[in-house]
Description:
Double Stranded RNA Binding Domain, three-stranded antiparallel β-sheet, 5 helices
Amino acid sequence: MGMRREFFMSTKKESIVTLVKRLVPDAEQRAKVFDEITRKEDEGYSFHNAPASLELLIARILDGRKLPFEVREYHVSARGTREMDVCEATVKVIVRGALFHKVCEGNGPVSALDGALRLALNSSFPQLNDVTLSDFSVELIGTTAGADSVTLVSVVSSQRERRWSTIGVSRNLIKASLLALADGLEYALIKAK
């Protein structure tokens, strides 16, 4: 398929419709993409500020693209005192059939999870070494208030002068973070090709 893969976050924002029309010239395929976008939006996704996640969604629908890695399991824990907090994340990741089981500490659960993912992927994808997590935000969405809300996590990643935004949605804040982080790393990998 000849889908163009050529955008990173820019100062000029494209609407979802314009972006999909640009990336998916075939009307029949475009209808499939809009159907999936609608389904994902019903789950709580909002692609307006996450064009990289939208581009990955399009690739998964039209190309059957799978993540170049698969997170099989994850665990995040926290401990602390009045003076300091430490979070620890464990991930089991499959890359090309090999299992990588890594643990990392961080100053928060997302930092620890990001570090563990990078440790697991480092030997297979050294091009991720200069990808950084530039920004992270959380939004509660839906009609349920408080801790039972669906959580939308937005991550901005950067690599040298390029920046891109990805999202993850779940009732579990850690899982939503993991989805957004994994999309951000996958996007860096497809752009490196």
